[in-house]
Structures are given as structure tokens and as C-alpha cells.
Model the fold of this input.
Amino acid sequence: MQAVWLEKNQIALRDVPQPAKPGEALIRIRKAGICSTDLELVKGYYPYTGVLGHEFVGEVVDAPDRAWIGQRVVGEINAACGACEACKNGRPTHCENRTVLGIVNRDGVFAEYTTLPVENLHRVPDSVPDEAAVFAEPLAAALEIQQQIQIKPTDRVLLIGAGRLGQLIAQTLALTGCDLRVVARHEHTQNLLKARGIRITTGDEIQSRRWDVVVEATGSPEGFNLARRAIRPRGTLVMKSTYKGEMNVNFSSIVVDEITILGSRCGPFEPALRLLEKREADPTVLIAAQFKLEESLKAFEQAAQPGVLKVLLNNN
Amino acid sequence: MQAVWLEKNQIALRDVPQPAKPGEALIRIRKAGICSTDLELVKGYYPYTGVLGHEFVGEVVDAPDRAWIGQRVVGEINAACGACEACKNGRPTHCENRTVLGIVNRDGVFAEYTTLPVENLHRVPDSVPDEAAVFAEPLAAALEIQQQIQIKPTDRVLLIGAGRLGQLIAQTLALTGCDLRVVARHEHTQNLLKARGIRITTGDEIQSRRWDVVVEATGSPEGFNLARRAIRPRGTLVMKSTYKGEMNVNFSSIVVDEITILGSRCGPFEPALRLLEKREADPTVLIAAQFKLEESLKAFEQAAQPGVLKVLLNNN
Done:
């Protein structure tokens, strides 16, 4: 089958054997999404060799439990061992022996087929089209913030960054009723937010030491510095991006202001699917372009342009 | 009156006018304690000019409400405005206009007298001797951890640092029943912990990625690195010290492991006094030496020696 293969910071479309893992479901990919992590992996953020991609919607074509066959599914990307301390304590996304779809020791979804343990699969409700379902993974990641901390309706929340993940975070945070402001620099990303009644700012007029919760979704030192300046004493600063290398932080001021800094990664799929089913979140507005799998290299080129949101890869 | 005066990284015993602030209580200092923050202030950690010192027990000699006169008291160090947003939201220790006893724009307690607003005062129970009451402020700071996060009885908690504040943190954490281990390097600090049945380690054999909560109380990059290594995914790393300059942090790993980093500063006095009254905490074992106020410079010299815990200054 065809697949987008990453090796030594180079991607190529390659013919690879169709995957087959005993005990796992075989899934035919319908649509897959290119995310910032994929772009960072190509740049060498983490050493990975194999088939790229982890955001998908597909169809089960084979599975140990035949009830899955024919189901349209999305899938959690961390395949856990079920036996380690993290797994036994209900933290399978932190399994010490995990493989991660298209990221760590597990071929991903920019291909005709992939495999996953059936425990990782979630059926997609019929009313949710592929174009929306393919966003289940990043939408779940956005919801992870509210899985980790309580966003009160009275909270002032500042989101820094309105890119692929930022847009989904903005949509889900807005549902809490909180006083949300989003730092968005590109006109297109500003307009998407405005269309949902979400207030935007360019960041310059952000009041210092005022925000109860700040979500940093740019992955840049500038974003972090703005977040640090904006957060109020005893506020919570959520780190929701990939950060290259190391950053310098003045920890004495973190202590004096009793700031909480919280790392946030993968989130819960079922609530994401519920929001998609009820159309409370609409990720389809992020779609910038769709390409056939064979045009993956062009798709990656477009996805890497500044201000471009979601680029999808389609099978057949 | 005599006072320990800090100016341009130099301390000196000086004759200064007896303080008098309309609306505040005048307190005769009975005992005061030298803390790491005092030593850091002398080194220039924060630019402060004035009378040093913030840990004390004293006696009210004058006050707007005469009921306070003659009371033996300890005092919260942050004097708040009562009107700013932090104050109105119940965070007076984060008042944007605060002065801080012996630290920010408010003469401290290494003197014969000091003044504080009566709202900052707490009566000391008769059964608590001066030698214990003088520790109310750092004991409250230790309890701030449990004011901020829940320590579960089943939690594995690693405390890094067994100095002045570390000893008090160890005593209060041990009361939760948690599985506590303390990294202590000096024999004397190890022995104090052992005497209370608290388990110690030198840090070398600490298992990585195992501890639910890690409290960093050394203020050193080495302590932070050990903390980062020891904390489990989704664990909480409490920063409980002063940190010089900036530290380099790999935030991608904080995101991937969904670590919480929490700054922790001043804490609640009433619970500290309750623990002292019930003798559940015994800070007096930390006392290394007591000096008269006139011998303050000698006292500071001793307090700055490695491994020396609490040095007290006595009036009269």
C-alpha cells in the first residue's frame, strides 16, 4: 500500500506492506489530518522513522471481535500495555511502554491502512461526517484542558494562539461561558473566531497580571512570555503546544506569584464526539484544503505555510 | 532603637527611630528568626533597603484597638491594601500594593520594635513558648502546600531539601500519612528527620518517574533537575524556595508528561498555631543558636554556614 514515510527528516510517498498486527483492528483510512506535530516531526522535534500521521477517521475491515467490522471509527493514538503502574492507575495515555500512532514506534495513518487495538477505537455517530470526525483527536486534546482544570464561568481566560489546535481550544473554551479572549494574528484565523462571536486581540493591549487562566498554544518563547505577563497571581498557565529546545524561566517570580504551570496533551474522545454530534463544535471551518494520499507531499507543503489551518489527506 | 539595617548588600547594626505608623499595632519583638530569604536579601536577591527580618514573636505595646495591648502575637508578613482586585478576591498575600515585612517597603523585625496592621496579628496560645511561636511564619509557609494541593494519604511524596523550611515541610507532610521520603545531605538534618521516623535518602537511589508529588526546597538547579526526573507523569512539582536568576526547562517534556509545576509562598497562620499548640509540629529542634540583637552580625555569620538551621535573635 502507499504511505507517507518519514526517515531522517525527509518524507516520501512509499510502497510499504499492508500492516497486520495480531489482536489489533485493521482500519482502512478514509480521511487523515496533518497537524503541527507532524510538521515538527519532519523538522526533527522527535526522532521517528515510519509512517506519519495520527488524526484520522476510518473503517474497520478486520478485527478480533467481528462486531467491529464495518464500523466507522476514530482512534486514540496511545496504545497502552495495560500492565504498568500508569495503566493500572487509570493513566493509559502515560503508559511507560506505550507506542503512539505515527509518533512513537507505531506506523501512522497517512496510508491506506493502519492498525490499532480495539480498546483505542470509538464509533463515530452516523450524523457526524468524515470531515468533522477526522478532528476527533485534536478536539479531544482541546478538551483535555477541562479534564485537568476547572474553567469557571466567571473566569477570565486568555488563549494565545489561534492555529490548528488554538481554534479548537477557542471553540471548546467558549462553551464554558468564561470571559474568553484569543490572541490571533492572521486575518483568516481572526475571522473564524469572530464568526463564532469569540473576542480576539492582537496581544499588544493585553492587561498584565489580570487573567485567571492563560492557555499558551503557540509553542514560542514569545507566546510563553506573554502568557507569563498576562497571568494573575495564583492563576494557571496551561502549556498546550510543542516547545523546541529549552526555555529560560524566572522561577522566583513563579514562586512569589504562586503560579501553576500545567502541561496538557491528549484528551478524552467520547466528549469530543458528543460535541461533534451536537454540533457544539465545528472544526470543519478549519479545513484549508483536501488532497489525495498520492499528493501528500503537496499537502505537506501547503500545511507548512503560515496561517494555513487544516489540510486533509483522502483515500480513494 | 537598635536594628539590623540592610543597604547595598551590607548589613549593620544601627540606631534607627522607633517605628510609629498611625493605625498599626506597635509590637515589641521578643524573638526573631533568620531565614534563607534574609540571607538571600543580603546577597542581593531582591533590592531592599531597611530593617531586615520577618519571622518573629512579640508583644503588642500599642494598638488602635486597646484589646490587643499586652497580647503575645505573631504576624503575617504581607500588609495588604484591602481594595485591589487580589484583596477583594480573597488573595491578600497577593495584594498588588502590598508591603512585606522586612522584604518590600516595610521595616522588619530584627529590631526592638516593629509595626503591623492588627489584621495581620494572631494571638499565640499560652502553651506555645516563644521558641516555638517564632516559627509560626515558616510553619505556615510549609502548610501552604496543603492549602494549594491535596496530599492524599496514599501519595508518594518526595521532598528535596531538608534545611530550615525543608524540615518544617517534612514535619507537616508526614502528618498526612503519605509515603514521604526526604532528600537530606547533612548528617544533622538527616538525624532530625530520623528522630521523627521520617525516611531519608541521599537522592542517588531515587526512582525516576515514580513520585506523585515532589517538593523542591533547595532553590538549586540540581534540586529542580532531580525533581523533574523523580516526578511521575501527571504529578505535581511544588517549587518551595527562592531561585536565583533563570533556569532552563524543557517544556515539551512537561507537556508530554502533563506535569503540574506550582509555585508556593506564604501560608495560613492559624493552622500553624494549632499544630504548635497540639505539639504536632516541633520546630524548636531546628534551633542552632540564639543571639542577642546586639550580636546580630555574629548571628548572620553563623546562619550562613552550610547545614546550620535556625538562628534566633533575642531582645532584652
The mean pLDDT of chain A is 96. Residues 76 and 119 of chain A are 9 Å apart (CA to CA).
